[in-house]
Amino acid sequence: MCIQYAYYNSPIGLLEIKSTEEKLLGIQFVDTITDYSKKNCTIATLCIQQLDLYFHQQLEKFTLPIEYPSDSSNFAINVWNALLTIPYGTTYSYKELAEKIGQPSSARAIGNACRKNPFVIVIPCHRVICHNGKLGGYIGGIEVKKQLVYNEKKG
Asked: Is 125 a catalytic residue?
């Protein structure tokens, strides 16, 4: 399997897109571009197009074929799949998401799974907030989470 990398300079920071020709393997915040000397593949190009539409408030749901890391736990995959069902412009609390997956006492573990989300923005862990209405943490930083939530709510 040939893994390729692409970069997207988003309004919230530089994103590294990891993919094959068939699947998206990850999207993460990075500080710098690493030269892997590989061309962008079809999935990476599609991802960049969809991210661009998302940031221009013209896309509410991503339609990218993703592949979870092989070392992902069943719990994390259940959380990530549940995150995909949170509607654009809506937030759930960690507790609500725990109840949604049938594990009401796992709110803290939900936060841990969100922190390990391999597909920032595409799997919208930024839509999960604390029960008291505070934003909680985010891998890209609290200001980035605030911007993502705000932009979706105004869109």
From this structure: yes
